[in-house]
Write a structure and sequence with these properties.
Helix 10 (307-329) crosses helix 12 (355-374), helix 11 packs parallel to helix 13 (378-394) and helix 14 (408-422) packs antiparallel against helix 15 (426-438). This protein has 15 helices and 14 strands. A hairpin with a 2-residue loop joins strand 13 (441-446) and strand 14. The longest helix has 23 residues, at 307-329. It is 45% helix and 16% strand. Among the domains are: 20-258, HUPs (Rossmann fold, 3-Layer(aba) Sandwich), CATH 3.40.50; 405-457. The protein is α/β, with parallel strands linked by helices. A four-stranded parallel sheet has the order 4-3-9-10. The chain has a four-stranded antiparallel sheet with strand order 5-6-7-8. The chain binds zinc ion. The site of zinc ion has 3 residues, from loops.
């Protein structure tokens, strides 16, 4: 069995087959957060979309090298630090902590590499120097700028020409730039305490340089997937690509962008004062509910999210939990997954990650599972049940036990154990599994990840 996944490439506007640069290993860079505040719901969508993609690729037997950065130097962090009367690095550390806690609650696998901008300053300076020497960037009185006119296909991701981008640009006039589309690679901020020395003077790097330097450093000059929310397509990703391609680097082969978030049945906006943060949404219900909402919409479509919709999701998940608990209680767990269901699942997922079809298949299979158990069709029930359990796991929806809540200590051990296993740290993974056994829990390993279950007496 070999599957070739097809993904929509924003650079070409076409759905293309993914053929990794290194066969068997998919390199994926996903733009991470700027850590100046509690994550909002939109952050949850992109992390879940790329977590689902990663888990599915791993299920196909591919190794995924997943890189996602932390922007820990930015004007927004400085502003926040001034407001809170704290040091910028303290602000960044605080909100990075909130970020990882929230992702853990969402059962998102940790990226294999998490580069921090502040650790990459010397490499960014080196890269900017290369651009200046190559005549792609110029030094101005307030910093170093990239000259977009040196990139023949600038506007590729925006699907607009340089001319039309110029006329539509909303960038404020800056007499230090040759063109209003040129962007800062290095900003001179000699008055700030939070600045680094450079050949051009004390200052800070620009955000667009951060991602190009970190992705190439960890994944090479030619890698498979570059992802993020569609709001990053222009100018952020356009500008990353410009810096790499002007030096002749192939850079990312497939650009994957997830769609916007729209208000659900309740209005949610910062201006209305009822804006709900990601930790609030996760805490309002079954933490898996948001993942289900993300799965039920195609990743490129708009997604409606609200507390009410999350509650609907939680009820739907409970139905699957119950069916799987029933499968267990009937002694039918652990069979070979039904081949037809699995083929239909792969067909949907290979088709540009058609998770709405995969989720519909999951719910149809649960209905079928219940009626097969009712009819005493034990062999068929076992096969369908195994398929439900596998698909559930691959999508990152580990089953909850009939007993309900998993104690926090157990959930934490389990999350650490899953991470250790993903990192191929089998010694640590085994130690954590033993600790879970001591607490009365077992982990059953499936292709998409472990499933936590209470140990039978
Ligand atoms: Zn980025």
């Amino acid at each position: 069995m070999s599957y070739v996944i097809r993904l929509h490439n924003s650079a070409t506007g076409r759905i293309e087959e993914l053929h990794p640069v290194i066969p068997g290993t998919v390199s994926m860079y996903v733009c991470g957060p700027t850590v100046y505040d509690v994550p909002h719901i939109g952050h949850g969508r992109f992390v879940l979309v790329f977590d689902i993609l990663r888990r599915y690729l791993q299920h196909l037997g591919l190794t995924v090298v997943h890189v996602s950065n932390i922007t820990d130097v930015d004007d927004k962090i400085l502003k926040r630090a001034a407001e809170e009367g704290r040091e910028p690095w303290e602000v960044a550390a605080t909100y990075e902590g909130v970020w990882w806690d929230t992702l853990e609650a969402l059962d998102v696998l940790r990226p294999n590499h998490v580069p921090h901008a502040t650790d990459y300053i010397p490499k960014m300076i080196e890269f900017i120097s290369t651009l200046v020497e190559a005549g792609k960037a110029y030094v101005s009185s307030d910093g170093v700028y990239f000259d977009v006119s040196t990139v023949a296909d600038y506007g590729l991701l925006a699907h607009q020409s340089l001319e039309s981008l110029r006329s539509g640009a909303r960038v404020e006039a800056n007499e230090n730039k040759r063109s209003q589309l040129d962007f800062a690679l290095w900003k001179l901020t000699p008055e700030d305490r939070w600045a680094w020395d450079s050949p051009w003077g004390r200052g800070r790097p620009g955000w667009h340089t951060e991602c190009v330097v970190m992705s190439e450093d960890l994944l090479g000059k030619s890698f498979d997937i570059h992802g993020g929310g569609s709001d990053l397509m222009f100018p952020h990703h356009e500008n990353e690509r410009a810096q790499a391609s002007c030096l002749g680097h192939p850079f990312a082969h497939i650009w994957v962008h997830n769609g916007f978030l729209v208000a659900g049945t309740e209005k949610m906006s910062k201006s209305l004062g009822n804006f709900i943060t990601l930790p609030e949404l996760v805490g309002s219900n079954d933490p898996r509910a948001y993942r289900l909402l993300v799965l039920q919409a195609h990743y490129r479509s708009p997604l409606a999210v609200s507390v009410e919709l999350a509650a609907d999701g939680a009820r739907a998940l409970a139905r699957i939990d119950q069916a799987l608990a029933r499968l267990d209680a009937e002694g039918l767990a652990g069979a070979e997954p039904d081949a037809q269901v699995m083929a239909a699942f792969h067909e949907a997922m290979d088709d540009d990650l058609d998770t709405p079809a995969a989720t519909a298949l999951l719910f149809q299979s649960v209905t079928r599972l219940n009626s097969l158990i009712d009819q005493g069709e034990r062999d068929s029930a076992a096969a369908i049940g195994a398929a439900v359990s596998t698909v559930f796991g691959v999508l990152g929806l580990s089953a909850r036990t009939a007993a309900g809540e998993v104690p926090a200590e157990v959930a934490d051990l389990f999350a650490r154990r899953e991470r250790a296993r993903a990192d191929r740290d089998y010694a640590l993974s085994d130690t954590l599994r033993d600790q879970l056994v001591d607490l009365g829990w077992v982990v059953e390993d499936a292709k998409g990840g472990g499933v936590l279950k209470p140990r039978l007496p």
